[in-house]
C-alpha cells in the first residue's frame, strides 16, 4: 500500500499523548460525538480502560503504558529499579482494569523491563518505551494488513466482528487493517460488519470508521451471520484477538466462536489478525483464559433506557474462545500461521 493510500485509510487516532496528560477519544460517545477525555493520572487511565472510553486489546496496552508515565510524575527515585518498585501499585491497578486482553499485562511488563535497564535517566526511558509501544503497534498493523489481504482472493466478501480498527489500536487496525488493505488492493468487494451486541462495537464504531475512509460496508444483526454465509456473500470471516494461546486458541469478542463454527459449516475461511503483543505463550490453551464478565445492565438497557422487564436476570460474558481447529490463519507481524497448533505457534513465537 503506498503512502497516499495509507493516509487515506488511516485517519483516526484514539490515543494522544499531550506531554502532561493522555487524551483518549471517548468511544462511549461515538459515532455521534467526537470528544477526547483528558486523563491526568494513571488511575484516570485505569478508569477509562475499565469504562470503555478506550477499548480494543492493543489500545488498552498502549494507554496503560502512557498511564505508567503519568504515575511516574508522582514519585521520586534515584534508579530505574527503585522506580519500578514505587510504581508497582499503580501498575497493578492498571493491570486489573480488564482481565482478558493480554496486551495490557504485556505493555506493563515492557515498561517494567525498561525501568530495570535504566539508571538515573529512567524517566526518559519510560517515555521512550511508551512511545515505542505505540509506534511499533502501528507498524505491525500496516504489515499485517498486507499479509492478511494477500490471503484473500480478488472479488471476495468479508465479515468482521467487533471493532478492530484504528479505534482499537495505535492506528490502521488489525482485522480492519486487513480489510483496509484488501479494499485498497481490489481484493475485497463486499464488507459486512456484525452489530456486536451488547455494546455494539460493530454498529457504533466499525461501520463509522469505514465510512470515514469511504469504504462501503453493510451492517448486519449478529444473528444474520449464518444466513449471510449460507447465501454466499462472504468468503472470509476476519477478526481480531484479545489473547492467542500457545496452541492457537483465541479469545475475542463474544460471538466470535459462533462465527467460526458457522464459517466451518459453510466452507467460509476464518482469519485471526493480531500483533505479537496479543500472543500469550505462557497460557497453554483457551480453557485457561479469564473471560471478563461485565455488568448485566449492558444487556438490560440501551443507551441508559431499560428495555427488559424489571426482575429479569442476565449473564454478560464479553469474550469467548475459538478453538484453534476452527482457525484457517493467524496473521501477525511476525508471519502468517496457517491452521495453527502448538507446534506451528512454537515455530514462530518460541516457547
Ligand atoms: O471489549 P472490547 O471492545 O475491548 O473488545 C475488543 C475486541 O474483542 C477486539 O476484537 C480485540 O480487542 C481486537 S482489537 C484490535
From TrEMBL:
Q: What is a single Pfam family found in this protein's UniProt entry? A: IF-2B
Give the catalytic activity: 5-deoxy-alpha-D-ribose 1-phosphate = 5-deoxy-D-ribulose 1-phosphate; 5-(methylsulfanyl)-alpha-D-ribose 1-phosphate = 5-(methylsulfanyl)-D-ribulose 1-phosphate
> What is the superkingdom listed in this entry's lineage?
Bacteria
UniProt GO molecular function: S-methyl-5-thioribose-1-phosphate isomerase activity
- The Enzyme Commission number assigned here is 5.3.1.23
Binding residues for substrate, per the UniProt record? 55-57, 98, 201, 252-253
Location of the active site: 242 (proton donor)
Protein's pathway: Amino-acid biosynthesis; L-methionine biosynthesis via salvage pathway; L-methionine from S-methyl-5-thio-alpha-D-ribose 1-phosphate: step 1/6
Recorded coiled-coil stretches: none
Q: Which Gene Ontology biological process is one annotated for this entry? A: L-methionine salvage from methylthioadenosine
What keywords appear on the UniProt entry?
A: Amino-acid biosynthesis, Isomerase, Methionine biosynthesis
The site feature described as Transition state stabilizer is recorded at: 162
Instruction: Report the family membership.
Output: Belongs to the EIF-2B alpha/beta/delta subunits family. MtnA subfamily.
According to its UniProt entry, the function of this protein is described as:
Catalyzes the interconversion of methylthioribose-1-phosphate (MTR-1-P) into methylthioribulose-1-phosphate (MTRu-1-P). Also catalyzes the interconversion of 5-deoxyribose 1-phosphate and 5-deoxyribulose 1-phosphate. Part of a bifunctional DHAP-shunt salvage pathway for SAM by-products.
- Can you name this protein? Methylthioribose-1-phosphate isomerase
Look up and give the organism this protein is from.
Pseudoluteimonas lycopersici
Amino acid at each position: 500500500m503506498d503512502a497516499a493510500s495509507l493516509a487515506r485509510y488511516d485517519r483516526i487516532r484514539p490515543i494522544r499523548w499531550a506531554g502532561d496528560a493522555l487524551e483518549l477519544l471517548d468511544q462511549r460517545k461515538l459515532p455521534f460525538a467526537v470528544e477526547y477525555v483528558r486523563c491526568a493520572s494513571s488511575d484516570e487511565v485505569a478508569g477509562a480502560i475499565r469504562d470503555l472510553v478506550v477499548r480494543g486489546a492493543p489500545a488498552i496496552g498502549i494507554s496503560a503504558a502512557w498511564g505508567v508515565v503519568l504515575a511516574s510524575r508522582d514519585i521520586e527515585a534515584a534508579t530505574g529499579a527503585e522506580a519500578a518498585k514505587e510504581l508497582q501499585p499503580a501498575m497493578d491497578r492498571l493491570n486489573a482494569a480488564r482481565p482478558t486482553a493480554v496486551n495490557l499485562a504485556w505493555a506493563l511488563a515492557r515498561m517494567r523491563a525498561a525501568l530495570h535497564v535504566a539508571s538515573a535517566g529512567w524517566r526518559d526511558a519510560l517515555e521512550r518505551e511508551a512511545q515505542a509501544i505505540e509506534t511499533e503497534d502501528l507498524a505491525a498493523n500496516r504489515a499485517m494488513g498486507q499479509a492478511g489481504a494477500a490471503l484473500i482472493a480478488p472479488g471476495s466478501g468479508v465479515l468482521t466482528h467487533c471493532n478492530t480498527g484504528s479505534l482499537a489500536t495505535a492506528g490502521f487496525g488489525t482485522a480492519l487493517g486487513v480489510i483496509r488493505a484488501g479494499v485498497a488492493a481490489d481484493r475485497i468487494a463486499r464488507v459486512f460488519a456484525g452489530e456486536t451486541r451488547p455494546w455494539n462495537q460493530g454498529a457504533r464504531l466499525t461501520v463509522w470508521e469505514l465510512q470515514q475512509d469511504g469504504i462501503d460496508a453493510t451492517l448486519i444483526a449478529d444473528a444474520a451471520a449464518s444466513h449471510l454465509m449460507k447465501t454466499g456473500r462472504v468468503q472470509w470471516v476476519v477478526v481480531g484477538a484479545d489473547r492467542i494461546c500457545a496452541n492457537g486458541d483465541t479469545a475475542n469478542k463474544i460471538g466470535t466462536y459462533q462465527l467460526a463454527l458457522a464459517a466451518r459449516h459453510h466452507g467460509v475461511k476464518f482469519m485471526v489478525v493480531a500483533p505479537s503483543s496479543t500472543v500469550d505463550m505462557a497460557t497453554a490453551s483457551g480453557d485457561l483464559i479469564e473471560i471478563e464478565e461485565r455488568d448485566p445492565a449492558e444487556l438490560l438497557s440501551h443507551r441508559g433506557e431499560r428495555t427488559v422487564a424489571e426482575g429479569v436476570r442476565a449473564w454478560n460474558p464479553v469474550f469467548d474462545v475459538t478453538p484453534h481447529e476452527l482457525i484457517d490463519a493467524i496473521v501477525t507481524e511476525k508471519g502468517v500461521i496457517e491452521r495453527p497448533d502448538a507446534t506451528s505457534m512454537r515455530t514462530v513465537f518460541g516457547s
